[in-house]
Amino acid sequence: MTDREVLSECPPSAKLVYKVLEHDGELTQQELAEETMLSPRTVRHALSDLDEEGLIDQRVYLADARQKIYSLQNADAEAEVDAEAAAI
Questions:
Q1: How many CB atoms lie within 10 A of CB 48?
Q2: Any bridge partners for residue 58, and if so which?
Q3: What pLDDT does residue 74 have?
Q4: Which residue windows are transmembrane per the record (predicted)?
Q5: Are residues 70 and 26 in contact, defined by beta-carbon separation less than 8 angstroms?
Q6: Backbone angles phi and psi of 34, in degrees to 5
Q7: Does residue 34 surpass a pLDDT of 80?
Q8: CATH of domain 3-87
Q9: Which of 37, 41, 44, 50 is 20 to 30 A from 84 (CA-CA)?
Q10: Which of 12, 44, 48 has its CA nearest to residue 30?
């Protein structure tokens, strides 16, 4: 199943969070709440859904170890594909 197929089964809030991560790159939960204008609780639930589906990565935010930073799981692979396409 592709990421797009998995994402189609997710709730709208998870789709919005995914698209913001796709556009903006790595963000904290607070930054996601600000960008999406969703409540922190809704963002937390959306991140949980995306994590369960294996669509995002999370790691400790080095600037503030109390927070996590989120990114798309395949962001590095997508960047490589984009770079290769631009080189052609």
A1: 12
A2: 70
A3: 76
A4: none
A5: yes
A6: -70, -45
A7: yes
A8: 1.10.10.10
A9: 50
A10: 44
Q: Which long-range contacts (CB under 8 A, 24 or more apart) does 64-67 make?
A: 64/28, 67/28, 67/29, 67/30
Angstrom distance (rounded) from CA 81 to CA 34: 29
Residue whose entry in the numeric block shows the structure tokens 């052609």: 88
Residue 2 — very low, low, confident or very high, per pLDDT cuts 50/70/90?
Answer: confident
Residue whose tokens read 């995306």: 50
Contacts of 15 (CB under 8 A, 6+ apart): 7
Q: pTM score > 0.90 for this model?
A: no
Q: Which two tokens stand for residue 57?
A: 């990565």
Pick from 28, 22, 24: which is nearest to 73 by CA? 22
The residue type of 58 is: Q
